[in-house]
Amino acid sequence: MPRSGGNEVDRLVTRRQVVGGALAAATATLAPAPGSPAALRTGDRPQSVTLSDLGGSPVSLPDAYKGKILVVHFWASWCSYCIKEIDALEALFGQHRERGFMPVSVNVGETKAAASGFLRDRAVTYPILLDGNSAVARLYGVTGIPTTFILDREGSIRFKILGEINREALRRVLSGLL
Questions:
Q1: What pLDDT, on a 0 to 100 scale, did the predictor assign at position 3?
Q2: Contact status, residue 99 vs residue 174, Cβ threshold 8 Å
Q3: Owning domain of residue 171
Q4: Looking at residue 37, what is its pLDDT?
Q5: What is the pLDDT of residues 134-158, one digit of tens each?
Q6: CA quadruple 55, 60, 63, 67: dihedral, nearest 10
Q7: Are residues 25 and 104 in the same domain?
Q8: Which terminal Cβ of the chain has fewer Cβ within 10 Å, N or C?
Q9: Are 42 and 17 in a shared domain?
Q10: In the prediction, which pLDDT does 17 show?
């Protein structure tokens, strides 16, 4: 696209077009296939699925975390809100691990190298799982990034958060479950 003079408005328009294109591509990737099950809702229990963590070990989600307050956070490296949420989840994990709080961030539609590279300078001590073909994201009914599910100790979805959530809001949501 030709730029007329390179002023701030032109840069913003170009950036919005690039971001908008990336969001459109991500949404198309996550669009449910015809005949796929309905999106998970509050009260539902997700079926068991197996994903690999960054070390290549299989993790059965949500079964591996029975009895925990489980946060399943779907993210991608191009999502600026996601890294803030990963930082918030890490801080809350450090504070509430002993009380049964377990976050899991599921990278959607990217390679192990992309996810690992994005997290290289971050100290994340909770599991990062890989959903390279976005199958689990589609199973959960994720249509945009970030999306976060909070499951109670019995494995039922108590909250589904579409879009960004900050540390304080997460803390308030979790306080009733811990």
A1: 42
A2: no
A3: 33-175
A4: 60
A5: 999 999 999 999 999 999 999 999 9
A6: 10
A7: no
A8: N
A9: no
A10: 40
Question: Which conformational region is residue 81 in: left (phi greater than 0), alpha (psi within -120 to 50 degrees), or beta?
Answer: alpha
Residues 100 and 143 placed together within one structural domain of the fold? yes
Tokens read off for 163: 């879009």
Q: Which CATH number fits the domain that encloses residue 120?
A: 3.40.30.10
Q: Are residues 116 and 147 in the same domain?
A: yes
- Please indicate, yes or no, whether residues 146 and 123 belong to a single structural domain of this protein: yes
The two structure tokens encoding residue 84: 């803030």
What is the per-residue pLDDT for 15? 38
Q: How many structural domains does the chain have? A: 2
Helix, strand, coil distribution of the chain in percent, nearest 5: 40, 20, 40
Q: Is the peptide bond before 127 cis (omega within 30 degrees of 0)?
A: no
